[in-house]
Amino acid sequence: MSHDVVPPGPHPSRRADSRKKGRSKDAGSGRPRRRTGRIVLISLLVLVLAAGGTLYWLYSRLDGNIKGVDIDKALGDDRPEKLPTSGQNLLVLGSDSRAGAENKELGGGGDVSGARSDTAMVVHIPEGRTQAVAVSIPRDTLVTRPECTKADGSTVPSANRVMFNSVYSQVGPACVVKTVEKMSKVRIDHYLEINFAGFKDLVDAIGGVTVDVPQDIDDKSSGLHLTKGTHKLDGTQSLAYVRTRHGIGDGSDLGRIGLQQQFLLALLSEVKSQDLLGSPTKSYKIANSATKSLTTDSGLASLTSLADFGRSMNGVNPNTMETIMLPVAYDKQDPNRVVAAQPQAGELWKAIRDDATIPESAKKSPATGG
């Protein structure tokens, strides 16, 4: 099943026209950008489906929920080589689409068209091991966008120094995959995207997520008000938690990445700990919430494919998952943007290509947002 996709933790919004460090505005609008940092990993969905493998009859109707995009056809042969021992690599995007009433409300409303890749993660599952690695790519990273083909068949020329976040809205998901492959030389095996409403509904379906809030948060922009300590968040609160910038670090997107990574692990652990086999109704509710707002590559765009992939990942333990931000430095020409920091970024991508342990030096980012 494959359908066309209408173009879809995050990071610094430190623009020259901002009056306050770390804040950004939409180009040409003067309107503060309402962002989300949804962090939904393929592990979440496939763990759910794998756990309910014996209840396939309940899930058969979910096939129609999943939207697919043919990444392989769009990219052709101009891609990194797939190495036999390089594990599995997934590109996970969070879309800030305002399509539909619920997405528009959760996104803060407003007259915002199209969608952007608000959160981007490369998830690496090493060959034959249980420890996965999630690498967040800051949305305001300046990258070289390669020549790409849009869904309508037209060609978009290569461009230098474009925001990573802009590739999705300007060209589409296949070009985001191609851009990541060009910058990392890592072959992306699968693609997954989820939107505002999907994230909220998923958290509500599992009964909320418990997080340890590191400091008081009083964010009037996101509407989030939490005291330091342990809190169980519902879907709406969780969305605000991973979106909040104000009162965290320097107010930029980089400053909130720690919250996003913390929430990712808490979310996966919550799903892993639940007795899904013992509750078919809840299993179906979670799977329905996950699939109805999901877009994948055509290789995963069926319930059978997702379940098979889920069983192959069943050994992945959220408690051992490592979350890393792509090392970045503030751009010398525009300090409101970042660029991949070298040699750290190169070392990180090489370790993933080689399916090797990531060296500590590759985890240090000159720009931290702190």
Question: If strands are numbered along the chain, what order do they take across the biggest sheet?
Answer: 1-14-9-2-3-4-15
Radius of gyration: 19 Å
Order of helices and strands: HHEHEHEEEEEEHHEHEEEEHHHEHEEEH
Distance between the termini: 44 Å
- Find the count of extended strands (DSSP E, 2+ residues): 17
Poorly predicted residue ranges: 1-43, 47-55, 98-113
Would you kindly provide a written description of the structure presented here, covering whatever features stand out?
By secondary structure, this protein is an alpha+beta fold. It is built from twelve helices and 17 strands. It has helices at residues 42-51, 56-59, 71-75, 101-106, 164-171, 173-184, 196-205, 235-243, 257-273, 280-292, 303-312, 344-353; strands at 67-69, 88-95, 117-125, 133-136, 142-145, 148-149, 155-156, 159-163, 190-195, 209-213, 217-219, 224-226, 229-233, 294-297, 322-325, 328-330, 338-340. A hairpin with a 5-residue loop joins strand 6 (148-149) and strand 7.
Indicate the topology:
Blueprint: H1 42-51, H2 56-59, E1 67-69, H3 71-75, E2 88-95, H4 101-106, E3 117-125, E4 133-136, E5 142-145, E6 148-149, E7 155-156, E8 159-163, H5 164-171, H6 173-184, E9 190-195, H7 196-205, E10 209-213, E11 217-219, E12 224-226, E13 229-233, H8 235-243, H9 257-273, H10 280-292, E14 294-297, H11 303-312, E15 322-325, E16 328-330, E17 338-340, H12 344-353
Parallel strand pairs: 1-14, 2-9, 4-15
Antiparallel strand pairs: 2-3, 3-4, 5-8, 6-7, 9-14, 10-13, 11-12, 16-17
